[in-house]
Structures are given as structure tokens and as C-alpha cells.
Amino acid sequence: MVRTRVAIRSEALDPGALLAEVSDPRAGASALFVGTVRDHAPGKEGVTHLFYEVYVEQVEAKIAEIVTEAVDRWPLCAAVVEHRSGRVEVEEPSVVVAVSSPHRGDAFEAARFLIDSLKERAPIWKQEHWAGGVEWIEGA
Fold this sequence. Notes:
Layout: E1 3-9, H1 15-21, E2 29-36, E3 40-41, E4 44-45, E5 47-54, H2 56-73, E6 78-84, E7 86-89, E8 93-101, H3 104-121, E9 124-130, E10 133-138
Parallel strand pairs: 1-6
Antiparallel strand pairs: 2-8, 3-4, 5-7, 5-9, 6-8, 9-10
């Protein structure tokens, strides 16, 4: 049985808690991806924060679909994905993916698939704020 969970949160994400959540005695490997807000974007310096606009039910369903695809492709023990909504400050996590598997290669590949697919397919919009203005950008 593979344990999975997906959540959109308005409060801070805790990568350590997600890593602990995917812990499993069958697992020989865990992989953790933490996407954080950086202080720049293409053509923009001095990013102060991001604002994520998320239709929770739709986004959670899409990410759950992606998690199911990962579970079907790799022998995972557990997979958890959380994404922020609302305002996220520079250096704060905006998305966390944690997986466990009997083998490291599967854990790495599944985590990469999850974050890459989420960014491509989940309907999340972000608004970048920097000293010179604000801009909406589609995609996580």
C-alpha cells in the first residue's frame, strides 16, 4: 500500500514534517524537493515576495492525479506534495515534494517527475512583486 497526500496551504510549509511523513520501514531511500522563493526572476532583480492564486479543489485534484501517475510508474512507499497559496516571502518554501521508495533511483525519479509535472500541469498562478512593480505569471 502506498500512502499519499496532497495539500494546498496558506500557512508555512514544514519540509521536515513531510520527510517524516513519508518515512517507511520498507523504504531504503527518501527524496525531498523544496522549492523556495528567490530574490530575482528573469529580467527582475529585488523580488520581495510572491503571491500564489490557487483554486484549491481543482489544484489538489490535479496534483493528486499526478501523484497517482507517479505511484503507477515507480515502486513508492509514500508520496506527499504540499503547495502554498497566498503571500510567500523570499527564502520561504512555496512547494514541497517528499517521496520514499525501496531504492534511491526510484525516489529521485519520482520526486523529479512530481515537481516537473506539477509545474507544467497544475493551474497555479503566481504574482511576482519587486521594487519596480508586480506581474502575474501562469504556472507554479
